[in-house]
Amino acid sequence: MPKTQRMEEKFRDFLVKLSGYFSGIRVRWLRCLLYDHIVLAELSRSNIDLIGLFNKLADQDEISYNNVDLLSEIAELTKEKPAISHVNAYKKAIQRHYVPITDRKELTLYRKNLFKALRAVKEDELQSLANSYQQDYSEFKNIWDLVFFLETYKRLEDKQDKIKKFGDLLNPTAKDIFLNGLRTSSRKRKGEQSRASSISRPDDPDALDGLGTSKRKDTFSKRKKGEQTAARSSNRPDDSDSSDDICFG
Questions:
Q1: Which of 41, 59, 96, 222 has the most CB atoms lying inside 10 A of its own CB?
Q2: Under 8 Å between Cβ of 84 and 16
Q3: Measured at the alpha carbon of residue 37, what is the angle toward residues 19 and 227, in degrees to the nearest 5?
Q4: pLDDT value at position 38?
Q5: SS3 sequence of 176-215
Q6: What is the pTM of this model?
Q7: What does the alpha-carbon distance between residue 211 and residue 18 come to, in Å, rounded to a whole number?
Q8: Could you tell me which residues come within 8 angstroms of residue 50 by beta carbon, excluding any fewer than 6 positions away?
Q9: Domain 3-97 carries which CATH code?
């Protein structure tokens, strides 16, 4: 088997196993973290396929067999130890046998702060947050679905006025996390700089589906970049499952 093909197959196997470490609410975590990197038509699907999202990142050249920095940063942020170990084992294997991995940070400060702040939001805050944006809280299963909706319709963005408004609605702990480093400047979303495609948002917010709601219609306008749907998925492995079996020899 040619060397390049062997590398690609090991890389795809690595992605399949990594996707297995994220299930349930953790899928919503990754949707939040990948918001600037994946087209909304994919992220808004009611049954999000993580391996499909990872494969799309690879197809877009945001990750590759010798650059998994984005996935490494995501694993570290989620503090999922099996995922961290799996990514680190893969990186070591690649560095021993092939081209060194580039050292790039992929997530904006806004994106990281938002994720960490949402982890500090309590479930009973969902209703007050939804009401503050004139939304029916019963249509959202959790805070992650609500925030995805707010970001999609630009009611929450990396802009100074919207950052302040959202931060002021959070509990003190979450507010401090969210506003840390974002108090004095408005930063342009990484996605607006790096993505080659864009999506037109519908005028009617009730047209959105795939947010964990039951009443929003699927009338997304798709971005220019084509969609690819991946059918593969995997169950979450046991935490004791070792990643030491990665070998490129």
A1: 41
A2: no
A3: 80
A4: 93
A5: HHHHCCCCCCCCCCHHHHHCCCCCCCCCCHHHCCCCCCCC
A6: 0.73
A7: 23
A8: 19, 22, 27, 30, 233
A9: 1.10.533
Spans of all domains in the chain: 3-97, 109-207
Strand, coil or helix: what is 96?
helix
pLDDT in tens, 128-164: 999 999 999 999 999 999 999 999 999 999 899 999 9
Are 175 and 138 spatial neighbours (Cβ–Cβ below 8 Å)?
no
For residue 161, give both structure tokens: 């006025």
Supply the pLDDT for residue 192.
44
Q: Which amino acid would we find at residue 50?
A: L
Q: Return the number of other C-beta atoms located less than 10 Å from residue 92's C-beta.
A: 14
- pLDDT category at 121 given cuts 50, 70, 90 is very high
Give the residue among 115, 140, 121 at the shortest CA–CA distance from 130.
140
Taking the C-alpha atoms of residue 231 and residue 50, their distance in angstroms, rounded to an integer, is 10
Tokens in use for 43? 């992220």
Q: How many helices (H) and strands (E) does the chain have?
A: 12, 0
Q: Residue type at 191?
A: G
